[in-house]
Amino acid sequence: MTENLIRVILADDHALVTEGLQSLISNTHDIRVIATASDGERLLDAVERFKPDVVVTDIHMPYLTGLDVADKIRQKSAHTRIIFLTAYTDVQTIQDVMKTGAEGLLYKTDPPEQVLHAIRQVLLDQLVFPSSARKLLYKIQNESPHYEFSQREQDVLELVAQGKTNLQIAHDLQISVSTVKFHLQNIYKTLDVSNRTEAGYWYLNNQK
């Protein structure tokens, strides 16, 4: 039973937030909080020590922000999924989060149970973003130029949006992983994005 637990680190400079989430998670059978942190530096130390499945972190924290530590978390624990929890709902914050390649974004005004749902969803390789964030991004993207992709690029983009890895995409399309990477590079360049999270959300918000 223990090996199936989802191991989570919570990071927020407000103790009320971490304590509230800890209490909520303590009532679940499949999720366990293994550490908490009140700033970015302590979060990185905890990630390096515990290698969690999921990090739920605030964006604005002392010393290092959640945005600052995202890449460093990947370096210390490549399999760890990142969910940002924030009180900010503006377009710039949403775009900043997506540029990190995080798997999820939640607002502090959302029902607390959404955190539990998001933790489980990101471990199924699904991206978790609020509908309001999708609408804001959709509005921005509708003001952007129309993009043309080859059929193969469209196929790759669709599978990326489904949360599939390069190896899974290669298997599904019966092409090499190198070819998948080549198509992704072209897709990123065309969309002017830097990672599969941004590309996947562009597809989800623009598919007809």
Rg estimate, integer Å: 17 Å
For the sheet with most strands, the description reads: 5 strands, parallel
Detail the poorly predicted runs.
none
CATH class of the largest domain: Alpha Beta
The helicity comes to: 40-55%
User: Could you tell me the mean pLDDT?
Assistant: 88
What amount of the residues lies in strands?
Answer: 5-15%
SSE succession: EHEHEHEHEHHHHHH
Derived from helix and strand composition plus strand pairing, the structural class reads: alpha/beta
Going by CATH, the architecture of the largest domain would be 3-Layer(aba) Sandwich
The total count of helices amounts to: 10
Count the strands? 5
Count of domain modules: 2
Shape: globular
CATH superfamily of the largest domain: Response regulator
N-to-C CA distance: 43 Å
Write the layout of secondary structure elements.
Elements: E1 6-11, H1 15-25, E2 31-37, H2 40-50, E3 54-58, H3 66-76, E4 81-86, H4 91-99, E5 104-107, H5 113-122, H6 131-142, H7 151-161, H8 166-173, H9 177-191, H10 196-206
Parallel strand pairs: 1-2, 1-3, 3-4, 4-5
Helix pairs in contact: 2-3, 6-10, 7-9, 7-10, 8-9
Short description:
The protein is of the alpha/beta class. The protein contains ten helices and five strands. The protein has two domains: about 1-130, Response regulator (Rossmann fold), CATH 3.40.50; about 145-205, Orthogonal Bundle (Arc Repressor Mutant, subunit A).
Overall description:
The protein is α/β, with parallel strands linked by helices and 208 residues long. It has two domains: 2-130, 3-Layer(aba) Sandwich (Rossmann fold); 144-206, Orthogonal Bundle (Arc Repressor Mutant, subunit A), CATH 1.10.10. It is 52% helix and 13% strand. It has helices spanning 15-25, 40-50, 66-76, 91-99, 113-122, 131-142, 151-161, 166-173, 177-191, 196-206, and strands spanning 6-11, 31-37, 54-58, 81-86, 104-107. It has a five-stranded parallel β-sheet with strand order 2-1-3-4-5, with helices on both faces. Helix 2 (40-50) packs parallel to helix 3 (66-76) and helix 6 crosses helix 10 (196-206). The longest helix is centred in the C-terminal third of the chain and has 15 residues, at 177-191. It is globular, with a radius of gyration of 17 Å. The model has no long low-confidence stretch (mean pLDDT 88).
